[in-house]
Write a structure and sequence with these properties.
mainly alpha; 2 domains
Length: 797
């Protein structure tokens, strides 16, 4: 009877999966476009492109170059989409599971981004009211840019940045929920084919995200340039124009933070709930169809790791470009360079080349015939690293070309070479960061194997070993960041560019160029990151649809590699966040000096109020992390209780006689994550504003007019340092715990179901909110604090 049940009833009943909604969802803008006649749409598109290139040509030939590269990259991404979607989806049971995941992910995305959009509009109104009543800078007064114009420009840039960040997140999720089943199907034939589909699906998302970040800023810059008649007599100077783009970066940061929080809480609450009851209590495999939380877990991979990460990297690139443009314009003005456009537009050119070289890296991963047997196939991590190496070599060449083209000036003929070396420092920093993170999170290396071995003596020793590994992993990245900042600053200072008094002025811009170098392969790095959740979802679909063990072995290897690539991308993002925050901090000090009409170039932490500001900044990081992890814990408890209830009230689930209620767990996690993301997100936004305003009032009554700005500067400085260390610890420890479990599941130390495996599952459960909720949210928080202080600087004075 049992045999008949497993062979017959299981086949009939557990392979049908309900849709989470009655009809598929598409964003409103896409639904409106689909209603327009195709010929009219083509005419509108051609008209829009014509207007875009006309404005670009009126601004600079460099803008036209940027537009052209971005549009070509979008065409390449369309080709990648068609290539991925042309692959078969496999048998009907795979398609049904994929559709359930797709519907759950799109339903949550609609609700989550609806909530975020309402908060963005509310914050936009707050920014508008602040800018309408703030004081103006001497530059704005001389150019005739009034308060109202400045206010509307900033709010428009903020809302556009938020919109583009949301679209970037949707693109990341859209491709992942369609590629997962195709990777699962390909794994039945060939491991290399499955790898190629996952990489190209991730590549589509990466090219769109980076391309949108670049073209969005380029369009804003060109529009403002033409509308405000920049550089004409009595108008704004081009070196001051990048300051108007700050709102765009803030909008991107705002959406990325809430997307990362909401998506991270969703995915880890479902994951923890599924693992604790399914693996530990019931002893069933990961992604087993008998687990009521399994669909919610697979949905979480898409909304947390794909949608949120797309918005995250979009925000990283936008913040880095804008901060570098501000510093480039400031330096060119101080050095009296006749045409500063090269220094201002240099970041856009670098990231345009990023689209080109990352496309080459993506296409370098080609399908070759293999047997599909793990022992016979090439290590997927080596294949991905070969593509990354190709991208890095091309990045070095194109970066040198870009610096010679954009940064050559007769005032310092060799300056471009120094800045090219700054870029090389950044590229090397990114490569070393990737290697360090891989060393601490890949189970082929000693740290993770030592962590796995600690599981053999129990749950407690596993936790102790994981925490110590995470703490140790902060040392090397901090040393690398420190060396890169000092090296880039020194190269910039010795570039030969000097101000009117003969003092070197290229140091900060050298650091900005190093940041650009670090992010010059961002599209390929995002490709590797998107590969992870797609492979994870593919493994879940294979397990739920009861494919042969050989297929699951292939997806397990891809999943383990995906865990490592996700961890390396997070390390990469933390490093870039550190450098970008340093640049934004310098821009904040310049902005305060402009409003206050006095020099503001140092922060004295020996002043008690300023030191308190630093303490509050560090406290913010720990409190934010605590609330993010607690949000996962509370949401996971709801999932655990629901899964236990279903196992008790439906005992036939374990014997395949009854089907779990997957939709109930999806509903619980969705509502819990939306509720829980508000508190830590509000803390991040409100804290610097409240602290700055309160100390501004205190400074007014004590005769220290800049006290509010100084306290906020200390708060930002300490929060950046604490946040970098905390994010490194959380991301690396979580990734190491996850791969220690994966290592044991390969058959080491007793394999699946052993006491050692159960201890590793506990460690993985502890690490889940570390690596996918608190850790990724922190490096978004760091950059958002920098952008919000820059935007809100007037209320601190």
């Amino acid at each position: 009877m049992d045999d008949d049940m497993e062979g017959g009833l299981y086949q009939e009943r557990t392979r049908t999966f309900p849709n989470m909604r009655s009809k598929p969802y598409s964003p409103l803008i896409f639904r409106l476009l689909m209603r327009i006649n195709s010929r009219v749409l083509v005419v509108l598109l051609l008209f829009g492109l014509g207007a875009l290139f006309y404005i670009g040509a009126s601004t600079s030939p460099i803008i036209v170059f940027v537009y052209s590269v971005c549009i070509i990259s979008f065409l390449v991404s369309i080709y990648l989409t068609k290539w991925v979607l042309s692959k078969d989806e496999g048998p009907p049971e795979m398609v049904q599971i994929s559709e359930a995941i797709r519907d759950g992910a799109e339903g949550f995305f609609r609700t989550q981004y609806g909530t975020i959009s309402k908060m963005a509009i509310l914050l936009g109104l707050v920014i508008l009211s602040i800018y309408l009543f703030r004081s103006t800078t001497p530059q704005q007064e001389s150019s005739g840019l009034g308060r109202s114009t400045s206010a509307y420009i900033t709010v428009a840039a903020f809302l556009l940045g938020a919109l583009c960040s949301g679209i970037a997140g949707y693109v990341g999720m859209w491709v992942s929920v369609r590629a997962n089943v195709r990777v699962s199907s390909a794994a039945r034939r060939s491991a290399r084919e499955a790898l190629q589909i996952a990489v190209r699906a991730g590549g589509f998302s990466a090219l769109v995200v980076v391309g949108m970040a670049v073209i969005g800023i380029a369009v804003l810059y060109a529009t403002f340039y033409v509308w405000l008649e920049v550089d004409s007599p009595g108008a704004m100077k081009v070196s001051d124009l990048p300051l108007l783009l700050v709102g765009y970066g803030f909008g991107a940061s705002f959406v990325a933070l809430f997307a990362q929080l909401g998506g991270g809480i969703y995915t880890k609450a479902a994951d923890v709930g599924a693992d604790l009851v399914g693996k530990v209590e019931q002893g069933i495999p990961e992604d087993d169809p008998r687990n009521p939380a399994v669909i919610a877990d697979l949905v979480g991979d898409n909304v947390g790791d794909c949608a949120a990460r797309g918005a995250d990297l979009f925000e990283s690139i936008a913040a880095e470009i804008i901060s570098a443009m501000i510093l480039g314009g400031t330096m060119a003005q101080r050095c009296k360079i006749e045409d500063p456009s090269g220094f201002i537009l240099f970041p856009l050119v670098v990231h345009s080349f990023d689209l080109v070289i990352s496309s080459v890296g993506i296409f370098s991963i080609r399908n070759t015939r293999d047997s599909g047997i793990i022992g016979a196939m090439e290590d997927p991590m080596k294949i991905l690293q070969k593509g990354y190496s190709v991208t890095v070599v091309l990045a070095v060449l194109t970066f040198g070309l870009s610096t010679r083209w954009m940064l050559y000036t007769e005032q310092a003929p060799s300056a471009w070479l120094n800045f090219a070396l700054c870029g090389l420092v950044g590229i090397m920093t990114a490569y070393i960061f990737v290697y360090i993170t891989k060393y601490y999170t890949d189970y082929k290396h000693e740290p993770v194997r030592t962590l796995a071995l600690s599981s053999s003596t129990g749950h407690g020793t596993n936790i102790i070993a994981g925490v110590s590994l995470g703490l140790e992993s902060t040392a090397l990245p901090v040393l690398v960041i420190s060396i890169s900042i000092i090296s880039a600053f020194w190269l910039g200072q010795t570039s030969g560019l000097v101000d009117e008094s003969g003092s070197p002025t290229g140091g900060l811009f050298g650091t900005a160029v190093a940041t650009m170098g670090m992010l010059s392969t961002a599209a390929y790095v995002l490709t590797m990151d998107m590969f992870g959740p797609i492979a994870d979802n593919a493994g879940g679909i294979v397990e739920m649809s009861q494919q042969p063990e050989s297929v699951r072995e292939i997806t397990d290897v891809l999943d383990a590699v995906g865990n490592t690539t996700k961890a390396t991308t997070k390390g990469f993002a933390i490093g870039s966040a550190a450098l970008a925050s340093f640049l934004l901090f310098s821009a904040y000090m310049d902005e305060v000096a402009s409003f206050a009409h006095v020099a503001f170039n140092q922060v004295d932490i020996a002043i008690p109020e300023v030191f308190i500001g630093g303490l509050l900044g560090s406290m913010l990081i720990y409190l934010f992390s605590a609330w993010a992890c607690a949000a996962v814990g509370r949401s996971a408890q709801e999932v655990v209780n629901e899964v236990r209830r279903q196992f008790i009230e439906r005992p036939g689930i374990m014997d395949y006689k009854e089907k779990p209620d997957y939709g109930r767990c999806v509903s619980i996690v969705a509502s819990a994550s939306l509720r829980e993301m508000i508190k830590p997100g509000a803390l991040a936004i409100i804290s610097p504003i409240v602290v700055g305003f309160l100390f501004r009032v205190l400074g007014y009554y004590t005769g220290h007019p800049l006290l509010g700005a100084k306290v906020v500067a200390a708060m930002l400085m300490f929060a950046t340092v604490s946040g970098i260390l905390m994010a490194l610890f959380l991301n690396t420890a979580g990734g190491a715990w996850d791969n220690a479990k994966k290592y044991i599941e390969t058959g080491a130390l007793g394999g699946k179901g052993s006491d050692c495996h159960k201890a590793a599952v506990t460690g993985d459960t502890v690490g889940d909110p570390f690596k996918d909720t608190a850790g990724p949210s922190l490096h978004v928080l760091i950059k958002m604090l920098a952008t919000i202080t820059l935007v809100m600087a007037p209320i601190f004075l």
